[in-house]
Design a protein that fits this description.
The complex is a heterodimer of chains A (187) and B (216). Chain A has 187 residues and is of the alpha/beta class. Helix content of chain A is 36%, strand content 27%. With 216 residues, chain B is α+β, with helices and mostly antiparallel strands. The chains are: A alpha/beta (187), B alpha+beta (216).
């Protein structure tokens, strides 16, 4: 049975657990603990190990959705989950203190996923903070990793249709990247 | 200057469906010209049997009172009025308005009936500057597949259509829309043609299986 692991990363409060809940057809397995950092994200609990959800394909094959904890003190989980993932949805909340710095930090940590799979960036809470714009995010990616073309969308993690759009574009990117390695694409 | 004064602004013309291929052709050209100008410009678009659309180039936003209704695909007439306004002029609608990308995407898809937009070369090849914000835009799975083709490499419209199995006219309409939104790089065709692309999303791939599973 093939394993299709999609990783959800991003800073605390970006909406990773909610995003997986929007996509998963099972009740999400969450490892939450009391949030001791109410300055970064004002919410009572936060993920400390991982969140897990899944979508069943035919023949009992599954797309496995893993949410990584957003705080760097749990980055040992990042390494474990990154090695299994075929692609990543990176969520950044636009009302954070410096969302472009968060984007750059997580692209630095998980950029290798782009080489062997794909990355999609979802900008959440842009209704509360209209800037940075999507052009700002695209420029930031181009400056940090000029070899990457990463889809960037505004997202409401609570909306299943929007999360499906992000997931489908990620998988398209993964398959498109694989196809571009075919010699027929050499230009 | 407010909305009322806009009626006195430069009349770009009344576009009649019997004279032009489609009134949307001229609307797309007016929007393209407006976005190429450094001055702040307002554009008022009067569509028969529909509410007027107001566009502000500096805000990159628009207002359309009946936004819940789709724009008519084949209106009889569209009347365009454009005016250059001071940079600090009070907006013609309450900000922030709707993202202009929504209007540019819709008009770009409706205009030119499968032909290249006049500002594009017939044999040009294209690559994305950034992805369109598909969570904001009404789109099809085929439009996502076409877009993925030009995510990291140059393709002509013919190459996009061949790689996806989507009709050439639909691929051209997508290129027209993305170009109008200003998110495409273009390059002249290569001498001797490029290597033929292969399909990137086979029917047995994860994308196809997930598409079936999600009923998309």
């Amino acid at each position: 049975m093939a394993e299709h692991v999609i990783l959800f990363t991003g800073p605390m409060g970006a909406g990773k657990t909610t995003a997986i809940q929007s996509l998963s057809e099972i009740e999400v397995v969450a490892t939450e603990a009391v949030n001791s950092d109410r300055i970064t994200a004002d919410k009572p609990t936060t993920t400390v190990a991982f969140d897990y959800g899944e979508i069943t394909l035919d023949d009992d094959d599954k797309v496995r959705l893993y949410g990584a904890p957003g705080q760097r003190r749990f980055d040992f989980m990042w390494t474990i989950l990154r090695e299994r993932a075929v692609g990543m949805v990176l969520l950044v909340n636009n009302d954070a203190a410096d969302p472009l710095a968060s984007l750059t930090e997580f692209l630095g940590e998980f950029g290798d996923l782009h080489a062997r799979g794909g990355i999609v960036v979802g900008v959440t809470r842009s209704d509360l903070a209209p800037v940075p714009t999507l052009d700002d995010y695209a420029a930031c990616i181009a400056a940090a990793r000029p070899e990457m073309m990463i889809p960037v969308f505004t997202l409401d993690a609570r909306e299943p249709s929007q999360m499906r759009t992000a997931l489908m574009s990620l998988i398209l990117n993964v398959e498109s990247t694989a196809a571009s390695r075919d010699p027929a694409f050499a230009q | 200057m407010g909305v009322a004064e806009l009626a006195d602004a430069a009349l770009l013309g009344r576009v009649d469906a019997r004279e032009a291929q489609s009134p949307w052709d001229d609307t797309a050209q007016a929007l393209h010209a407006m976005l190429c100008e450094p001055e702040r410009t307002w554009l008022k678009i009067d569509i028969d049997d529909a509410a007027s659309v107001f566009v502000d180039s500096r805000l990159r936003a628009f207002e359309r009172p009946d936004a819940a209704q789709p724009l008519p695909e084949a209106p009889r007439t569209v009347r365009l009025q454009s005016t250059i306004v001071p940079f600090d002029a009070h907006p013609p609608f309450a900000p922030p308005g709707e993202s202009l990308d929504i209007l540019l995407w819709t008009v770009g898809l409706l205009a030119f009936d499968g032909r290249p937009a006049p500002w594009l070369g017939a044999a040009d090849r294209y690559r994305l500057r950034r992805w369109p914000n598909f969570t904001l835009l009404a789109h099809s799975i085929d439009q996502m597949r076409l877009t993925a083709q030009i995510g990291s490499r140059l393709h002509s419209v013919d190459e996009m259509a061949a790689a996806t199995g989507v009709e050439r006219a639909a691929a051209q309409a997508l290129i027209n829309a993305l170009s109008l939104m200003g998110i495409l790089h273009s390059a002249p065709a290569v001498a001797g043609g490029a290597a033929a692309p292969v399909a990137s999303s086979p029917a047995t791939g994860l994308f196809a299986r997930l598409r079936r599973r999600l009923g998309l």
